[in-house]
UniProtKB/TrEMBL annotation:
This is 2,5-diamino-6-ribosylamino-4(3H)-pyrimidinone 5'-phosphate reductase. It comes from Collybiopsis luxurians FD-317 M1. Keywords: NADP, Oxidoreductase, Riboflavin biosynthesis. One of its GO terms (biological process) is riboflavin biosynthetic process. Its EC number is 1.1.1.302. One of its GO terms (molecular function) is 5-amino-6-(5-phosphoribosylamino)uracil reductase activity. Pathway: Cofactor biosynthesis; riboflavin biosynthesis. Catalyzes an early step in riboflavin biosynthesis, the NADPH-dependent reduction of the ribose side chain of 2,5-diamino-6-ribosylamino-4(3H)-pyrimidinone 5'-phosphate, yielding 2,5-diamino-6-ribitylamino-4(3H)-pyrimidinone 5'-phosphate.
C-alpha cells in the first residue's frame, strides 16, 4: 500500500525542477462528494474527507510553502490550515528532546476588500505561537471614497498580526484579484510552492487559468452524495452533469490528464497533471 507521503512525493517532487519559473508551483486541491459538491446547502461546511484522506491533506500541507484560500472560505469555515492531524514527530536528537514540529505552510487569504475578521482562528493561532503569520492579499483601492474604512480595516488586521500584501494592481473587471499578479507577487515574497485549498470561487478561478498556472490537481472523492442543494466548484455542472465523476472528465478535457489515484480509507484521491 502506498503511504500518503509516498503518493504525494511521486507527484510533487518534480517541483524541484521548476526553479526557473517566475511563479510558485501550484497544487489545486479540494474534497468533493460523488456528485461534485464541496459544501452543503447555503455553503455549510462539510467534512467530506475521512480520517485517512484528511491526514493525506495534512501531509500535503507540510510539502508547500503557502496554503491559499479565498475570503469566502475564511469567513465561512474559519479554518486553521495547520497540520494538527499528523502523528507527533520524534524529537530532534540535536535539540535536547524539544519538539520537532512539522513544516507549516504560510496561510494566504485572497481578500480584495479586507473583510477577514481580526478574531479569526488563523490570527489567534499566530498570536498564540501556534501558526505562521497569515498574509492577506488585497488589491489597490479602486475607489478613493472608501479609503478611510479600508485603512481602518488594514490597521485592525495588522494589529491582530496579519501581513497585508497589496498587489500592484486593481481587482479585475470581474471584481477578483488577478491570478498571474497574485502568483508573481508571492514568488517575489519567496513562496516557491502553494497549495490552493478552495473554496468554490477560487477553484473556478485557478481552474479557468488552466495548465498555465496550475501544476497538479489533487481531488479527494468521498463516497457520499450531497444533493442538488450543495455547492459545486463548477456551476454549469449542476445543469450539464450527465453521470458520476463528470467533474473529473471535465478537468481532463481542460488540459489535464489523469496521473494516478490512491485509496485512503473509503475515499479515492485522484491526481491530474498537465497533459
Ligand atoms: N470541500 C473542500 O475541499 C472545500 C470546501 N470549501 C467550501 O467552499 C465554500 C466557500 O467558497 P466560496 O464562497 O466560493 O469562497 P472562496 O473561498 O472561493 O472565496 C471567494 C472570494 O475570494 C475573493 N477573491 C479574490 N480574488 C479572487 C480570485 N482571483 N478568485 C476567486 N476568489 C477571489 C473574492 O471575494 P472578495 O471580492 O470579497 O475579496 C471571492 O468572492 C464554503 O462553503 C467552504 O466550506 C472551501 C474550501 C475547500
Ligand atoms: N481535505 C478537505 N476535506 C474536507 O472534507 C474539507 N471540508 C476540506 N476543507 C478545507 O480545509 C479547511 C479547513 O481546514 P482546518 O481543518 O481548519 O485546518 C477548509 O476551510 C477548507 O479549505 N478539506
Amino acid at each position: 500500500m502506498t503511504s500518503a507521503p509516498q503518493f504525494l512525493t511521486s507527484l510533487l517532487d518534480r517541483y524541484k525542477d521548476y526553479n526557473s519559473q517566475s511563479r510558485p508551483s501550484v497544487t489545486l486541491t479540494f474534497a468533493q462528494s460523488i456528485d461534485a459538491k464541496i459544501a452543503g446547502k447555503g455553503g455549510k461546511q462539510l467534512i467530506l474527507s475521512g480520517k485517512e484522506s484528511m491526514i493525506m491533506t495534512h501531509w500535503m500541507r507540510t510539502m508547500h510553502d503557502g496554503i491559499l484560500v479565498g475570503i469566502g472560505t475564511a469567513l465561512n469555515d474559519d479554518p486553521q490550515l495547520n497540520t494538527r492531524h499528523l502523528p507527533p514527530r520524534d524529537p530532534d536528537p540535536s535539540s535536547n528532546g524539544h519538539s520537532n514540529p512539522y513544516h507549516l505552510p504560510r496561510p494566504i487569504i485572497l481578500d480584495t476588500d479586507l473583510r477577514l475578521s481580526p478574531r479569526c482562528k488563523l490570527l489567534k493561532n499566530f498570536s498564540e505561537g501556534r501558526g505562521r503569520r497569515p498574509w492577506v492579499v488585497c488589491a489597490e483601492l479602486a475607489a478613493a471614497d472608501s479609503r478611510a474604512e479600508w485603512v481602518d480595516r488594514r490597521k485592525e488586521l495588522e494589529t491582530a498580526g496579519a501581513r497585508v500584501v497589496v498587489l500592484d494592481s486593481e481587482a479585475g473587471a470581474n471584481g477578483l484579484l488577478p491570478i498571474p499578479v497574485i502568483l508573481e507577487t508571492l514568488h517575489k515574497l519567496e513562496i516557491r510552492s502553494v497549495m490552493v485549498e478552495g473554496g468554490a470561487q477560487v477553484i473556478r478561478s485557478f481552474f479557468s487559468q488552466g495548465v498555465t498556472f496550475v501544476d497538479t490537481i489533487i481531488v479527494t472523492v468521498a463516497p457520499t452524495f450531497v444533493g442538488e442543494d450543495g455547492v459545486s466548484y463548477n456551476a454549469s455542472l449542476n445543469i450539464l452533469e450527465s453521470g458520476l465523476f463528470t467533474p473529473i472528465a471535465f478537468l481532463q478535457s481542460s488540459g489535464f490528464k489523469y496521473h494516478s489515484r490512491e485509496m485512503f480509507g473509503p475515499d479515492t484521491v485522484v491526481a491530474l497533471c498537465p497533459a
